[in-house]
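Session log. Operator J.P. requested a structure for one protein chain; no other inputs attached. Running the standard single-chain path with token output.
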Amino acid sequence: MRPPECIHSPMNTALPFSQEESVAYVENVVRRAGTSFYWAMRRLPGNKRHAMYAIYAFCREVDDLADEAGAVEDKLAGLGQWRGEIERLYGGRPRNPVTRALQGPVEEFGLGKEDFRAVIDGMEMDAQPSIRIPDMDELTLYCDRVACAVGRLSVRVFGLDDDTGRALAFAQGQALQLTNILRDIDEDARNDRLYVPNDLLVSYGITDDDLNETLKHPAFEKVCETLAGVAANHFEKADELAAGCDAKTIRPAIMMMEIYRRLYQRLKRRGWRDLTRPVGLGKLHKVWIAFRYGVL
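Structure written below.
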């Protein structure tokens, strides 16, 4: 869940930020977000820590923009501004404190422009007032944009080789985002959103256009179980890849995986019959995971 206060960085060129101020700005974004991820990032060496703060701040701001109340046209216009700012970043002319903080990491770690673009693509999907996913390929693409692309940026900072890094980013990103989707089915449905792909629904005989009737269908439990199985396969692959890496190097990734693994396990125990019963991890539980996997 997102905290009640959204943080938006200024796009105004009349508000210049020094490099030091930009670095401080993104750290403040992460700290104010109240994420347990902050503690894992703090354990990284200085240059990697600042890079991860900047990546997180970028993702945070475009996500808040896509998710806040307002007209779709305004959201898309705001995301369009971020597209322009990414172009300025790679042209050596960033004017936003977040992209100014990203300037050093882009050069030092070779962060890919296409991954920042992919995140914005995903946010444009989320900005729509009504969402339906036609098939598993589209769902995989959506998860790639909103989660795996962030992973690809992160593994560049961690210093993994390209093949291992991209594979880990894909497996973990898919696992985490599918877990989010399974957790939020009821909440999303209340906002006329369904990320469960239509081809999977049809394969279980669910063809009703009414979203409420879809969720009430006797076979919808099996649909969720199938999607949970896909997530489980990605968790398993991510575990295999992470086992071949230096744990200290990928500490934030391991911490995130452990948080979502426990969330996934709780979803499985609850089952898919009563989707209105919320599932989550308490703050103390997250703090314990952050300490166990992000600090020790």
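Operator note: The longest helix spans residues 220-243.
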